[in-house]
Design a protein that fits this description.
Blueprint lengths: L1 E3 L4 H10 L4 E4 L5 H6 L7 E4 L9 E4 L2 E5 L4 H6 L1 H6 L1 H8 L4 H4 L4 H5 L12 H7 L26 H8 L3 E6 L2 E6 L19 E8 L3 E9 L10 E8 L3 E7 L6 E6 L4 H11 L10 H18 L5
Parallel strand pairs: 1-3, 2-3
Antiparallel strand pairs: 4-5, 5-8, 6-7, 6-8, 9-10, 10-11, 11-12
Helix pairs in contact: 5-9, 10-11
Length: 308
C-alpha cells in the first residue's frame, strides 16, 4: 500500500486520478480503518487530506455557512457559528460515536461512511464461518435469504441532519467543482452506495442561514455512545412553515419527506412506511424500528410547533 500526504487540493485530485479507482482518501480514518481491518476494503493507495488547510474552515458569507469537509465533529459541536445558526448539527454531532472518536472523525467522513449491516460488519473469521453476503461478493443476502439486492442500511447521522436543513455539497471531480444537494450523492444501492466516483473529493458543505428556525433530532440505538444508528429522524420547519423530514437507518439511502404545516402527520408516517426498506439486519427488530419511526415523526411535528 502506498501513502501520500498532499498539501493542495489539486495535488490530491491528481493522485486519485492516477490510481484509477483503487485509491482511498483518508480523513479521520475512523470508518475506513475498521472496514480495512474487517477485510471489507483493500486500498492500494491512501491519500491523507489532513494537511489541506482549506478543508478545515467554517465560514459565514452572505446568506450561507460553509463547512470544510475536514472539520472534525468535535470542532463542529464547539463552533459558535454552528451553535447560533444550526444547533441541530451540534445535537447530531453529539450523538455520534464517543468524545475521543469525535476529535478525529470528520464531517465529510461521516457523510461518506459506508452502509452497514449486521452480517457485513463482522470479522474475517466470522464471515468465513457464516458465509459471505452480497455486499462482500457472496451470492445471497444473509439478512433476507434472497439474491435480488443488498439491504445494508444508511447510517450517516450528519447527512440526515444536513438534508433536513437543505444542505448542499461541493465535490471536486476531475478538477471540476459540482454543487449538489446532499441527498443526491447517495445511490440507494446497498453495495455501491454513493453516486460519486472514487477519485472525487468532498470539498465543503453549504447551508442557508436564517431559513430553518425550528428543528428536531432523535436517534435510536442500543447504547447512548459508540453505536451506529438503528433509526435517525431529523426535521426542520422554515419561516414559511414548509417542513423537511429526513430519515436514516431505514433503507440503503436517506429518505426525504417534504410538506408544510397543513400536511397531516399520519400522511408523513404513511409515506415513510411505504418508502422504507427495513429488514432484520440490526440489533433492534424490524417491527420495533418501524413503530419508533412513527413515534419520532409525531414527536418531531410537535417539537417544531406543528399540530398534525
Amino acid at each position: 500500500m502506498n501513502y501520500y500526504k498532499p498539501k493542495e487540493l489539486t495535488e490530491a485530485v491528481s493522485l486519485a486520478e492516477s490510481a484509477n479507482g483503487s485509491g482511498f482518501f483518508i480523513a479521520g480514518g475512523t470508518d475506513l480503518w475498521v472496514n480495512y481491518l474487517q477485510k471489507n476494503t483493500e486500498p492500494t493507495l491512501l491519500i491523507d487530506l489532513s494537511e489541506i488547510e482549506e478543508l478545515k474552515e467554517i465560514n459565514i458569507s452572505k446568506n450561507q455557512i460553509e463547512i470544510g469537509s475536514f472539520v472534525t465533529l468535535d470542532e463542529l459541536i464547539r463552533n459558535p457559528l454552528i451553535a447560533k445558526h444550526f444547533p441541530l448539527l451540534a445535537t447530531a454531532g453529539l450523538s455520534i460515536a464517543t468524545p475521543v472518536i469525535r476529535k478525529t472523525a470528520t464531517i465529510g467522513g461521516n457523510l461518506l461512511c459506508e452502509n452497514r449491516c449486521y452480517y457485513y460488519n463482522q470479522s474475517e473469521f466470522w464471515k468465513n464461518a457464516a458465509g459471505q453476503c452480497l455486499k462482500n461478493c457472496g451470492e445471497i443476502c444473509l439478512a433476507t435469504g434472497g439474491a435480488k439486492g443488498c439491504y445494508s442500511k444508511f447510517v450517516s447521522d450528519m447527512a440526515v441532519a444536513l438534508i433536513a436543513v437543505e444542505g448542499e455539497v461541493e465535490i471536486v471531480e476531475k478538477k471540476v467543482i459540482h454543487k449538489i444537494p446532499i441527498e443526491k450523492i447517495y445511490s440507494g444501492d446497498g453495495i455501491k452506495s454513493k453516486n460519486i466516483s472514487p477519485d472525487a473529493i468532498l470539498k465543503k458543505i453549504t447551508l442557508p442561514v436564517e431559513k430553518y428556525t425550528k428543528t428536531y433530532y432523535r436517534k435510536l440505538r442500543s447504547r447512548k455512545s459508540v453505536e451506529f444508528t438503528s433509526l435517525t429522524v431529523a426535521m426542520a420547519c422554515d419561516t414559511k412553515n414548509n417542513i423537511r423530514i429526513s430519515i436514516g437507518g431505514i433503507a440503503q439511502k436517506p429518505l426525504l419527506l417534504t410538506g408544510d404545516s397543513s400536511t397531516p402527520v399520519e400522511e408523513f408516517i404513511s409515506s415513510a412506511n411505504k418508502q422504507s426498506k427495513i429488514i432484520d439486519n440490526d440489533l433492534f427488530p424490524r417491527v420495533y424500528r418501524k413503530e419508533m419511526m412513527g413515534v419520532y415523526i409525531r414527536e418531531g411535528m410537535r417539537g417544531v410547533g406543528v399540530v398534525g
